[in-house]
Amino acid sequence: MSAPFRILWLQSGGCGGCSMSLLNAESPDLYNTLELAGIELLWHPSLSEASNEEFIALLERVVDGSQPLDALCLEGSVMRGPNGSGRFHVLAGTGRPMMDWIRDLSARARYTLAIGSCAAFGGITSGGDNPGEACGLQYDGSDKGGLLDGQWVSPDGLPAINVAGCPTHPGWVTDTLMQLALGELGTAELDEFNRPRSYTNHLVHHGCTRNEYYEFKASAELPSDQGCMMEHMGCLGTQAHADCNRRPWNGEGSCIRGGYACINCTAPGFEEPGHTFTETPKIAGIPIGLPTDMPKAWFIALASLSKAATPRRLRANAVADHIVVPPGAGKKPTLK
């Protein structure tokens, strides 16, 4: 019988939202998913019963090499303040900054994963003046070099794997862990920000329930409207790399399906767009942020044609909070 794939989950500067999302995994649930994949959870702050002394002893065994560790999962940003000392976040009972533990543990783990955009890039906790000197594991915003050097690789040859999102989808985490456990995740399966391509090869736009409105540029004007939120409401779904609308949370939910614009939370720097999240910046009435891979001239031409061809049904429903004009039955074609 092969040895289990052992993971250790730590939380640093964050809200715990990625753990909350992970615990909502279903079909199968988290425990069954891990068991079926041969993954052993050595410790998780929300799930483990070990005492503080037992937990510290576990960390020491990993560091001295007597406890094998396949994957270190970090949730939350690395808190380096004040003045690079890390003393803003000391691991209870050890007297050592958490960032020092993370550095030592990542040197032992076969793979190191940043769970969520805070751990990947700094995220929400690095916003504003960043008094805590928060950063990601191997990125500081979009720049390489967070806690770990930009050229750092794990003992098995991979950089820190950025399972970015705010929060992450439980499937993004479990898929990545299962790929690692099966030996099926290499550098080719990571994108330019070292995010798993299993979900970042998609756009949030894919599977969006408002796509018909987008096609005809029938736009929402208020948060409660049903229309496309790209033109006026700040939606970045056509630029955001994630499959939120292809496999929504709990089988049904996503930001857009809940009536809120996509804020591109899997990307570095999403926390400070320079304007309110529900505003679409424009120049001469044209959105600055255009769909991925689409030349501006093409977008302007197609948008003009689309608006001219917008059916009355979509034009009316786009600015309403419910269906006011249902689809017509249409006429069947006559065969001659």
Features:
336 residues, alpha/beta, Rossmann fold, two-stranded antiparallel sheet, 10 helices, elongated
Give a written overview of the molecule.
- With 336 residues, this protein is an alpha/beta fold.
- A hairpin with a 2-residue loop joins strand 10 (282-283) and strand 11.
- The strands form 4 sheets. A 5-stranded parallel sheet has the order 2-1-3-5-9, with helices on both faces. The protein has a two-stranded antiparallel sheet with strand order 4-6.
- The protein has 2 domains: 5-200, Rossmann fold, CATH 3.40.50; 202-323, Cytochrome-c3 Hydrogenase, Chain A, domain 2 (Irregular), CATH 4.10.480.
- The chain has helices at 17-22, 30-36, 52-64, 98-108, 117-121, 170-181, 197-200, 211-215, 296-308, 312-318, and strands at residues 5-11, 39-43, 71-75, 78-79, 111-115, 134-135, 139-140, 143-144, 161-163, 282-283, 286-287.
- The mean pLDDT is 93.
- The chain has 10 helices and 11 strands.
- The radius of gyration is 23 Å and the shape is elongated.
- Helices cover 25% and strands 11% of the residues.
